[in-house]
Amino acid sequence: MRSPETAGVMPDSDVVVRTDGLTKRFGRRAALRDVHLEVRRGEVLGYLGPNGAGKTTTLRLLMGFIRPTGGSARIHGRDTWREAHHVHRQIGYLPGEPSLHDRLTGRDHVRFTSRLRAQRDDKRAVAIAERLDLDLDRPARTLSKGNRQKLALVLALMSDPQLLVLDEPTSGFDPLVQQEFQALLREHTAAGGSALLSSHVLGEVQRTADRIGVLRAGRLIAVEEMAVLRERSLHRVRARFDDPVTPADFARLPGLRDLTVTASTLTCSAPASALDALCRRMAEHRLADLECTEADLEETFLAYYGGEPSDAA
To answer: Quick one: average pLDDT of 58-74?
Structure first.
């Protein structure tokens, strides 16, 4: 695992978002502590952590809604607190709890946002709404949670912003709409845009993110390439032997987790990098049965990053 503080620094031209020692306290409570984070051009960074870890606080700091207690946050080199009005022009923001005007229709919301963004028409918004199967002529008060989320997403995407800041974006979406959201996100990054996607659900992030940042108790404890995490994907191994085996036969193999060996059986979790050595060692015995299944990515994630930090608040 690479430490976020020691990860290579990208050239400024490739960095859309950069935080340095970003800290936020509410009274005596530290909601965010010394966060160093980058979002690169053309990537989706998944921002993961349990509820209450500080994800939404980070996004509100990036939007300039609240002032940092310490450190700084910059988007395209501009300070997000001091130059918030410039920063907002480059961001499509989807909050965790979208604020909509109940009496206005979706189309009213689109027209109002178009005026704020100085857009000449609403063709882009209408096209996105059609892809999401959203009726723009219904008042917001009549919309379900999922459709309110769709409308908020339309408003975030409609101006083709350089950066998307998305807080739990697929909450309330059915699987088909989630797929369409993923397609929209891929199109956004293919065109050179970037996205910071906050979620407490790994499954949501793994389908879209290029990298993940893991936040726990207000601290960024890991920043990792999604491809690297997939390489670490654990395999559940169960083996039965026709001759006796002992724990000592397998104890020195690197990378094994939850190793249990009885007189004739073995169970463990092993990353892909450990499978070859494990198979070679098992072949030294008379193997009667073998089962090897790949764990889902969430199980791998929890195995590597699931422990509570020693200084958790």
So the answer is: 97
Q: What gap in Å lies between CA 48 and CA 223, rounded to an integer?
A: 10
Helix (H) or strand (E) segment spanning residue 166: strand 163-167
**Range 45-61 average pLDDT:** 91
How many Å separate Cα 189 from the centre of its chain?
15
pLDDT category of residue 4 using cuts at 50, 70 and 90: very low
Q: What letter represents residue 141's amino acid? A: R
Q: What are the C-alpha distances in Å from 8 to residues 5, 185, 193?
A: 9, 26, 21
Q: Does domain 12-229 have CATH number 3.40.50.300?
A: yes
CA dist 112 and 95 (Å) reads 18
Quote the DSSP letter at residue 139: B
Domain boundaries, the chain: 12-229, 234-294
Q: In Å, how far are 100, 150, 198 from 134, measured between CA atoms?
A: 15, 7, 23
Report residue 207 as tokens.
């389908």
Could you give the CA distance from residue 52 to residue 56 in angstroms, rounded to a whole number? 8
H/E stretch holding 289 reads: strand 287-294
- pLDDT tens-digit series, residues 198-252: 988 777 788 899 999 988 889 998 898 988 877 777 899 999 999 999 999 999 9
Distance (Å, whole) CA 117 – CA 107: 15
Q: How far apart are CA 206 and CA 209, in angstroms?
A: 6
Residues contacting residue 107 through CB under 8 Å, at least 6 positions apart: 122, 136, 137
CB-CB contact of 193 with 161 (8 Å): yes
pLDDT digits (tens, 9 = 90+) for 290-312: 999 987 766 777 777 665 443 43
- Categorise residue 296: left if φ over 0, alpha if ψ from -120 to 50, beta otherwise: beta
Tell me which fold the domain 234-294 belongs to: Alpha-Beta Plaits (3.30.70)
Place of tokens 């979790």: 269
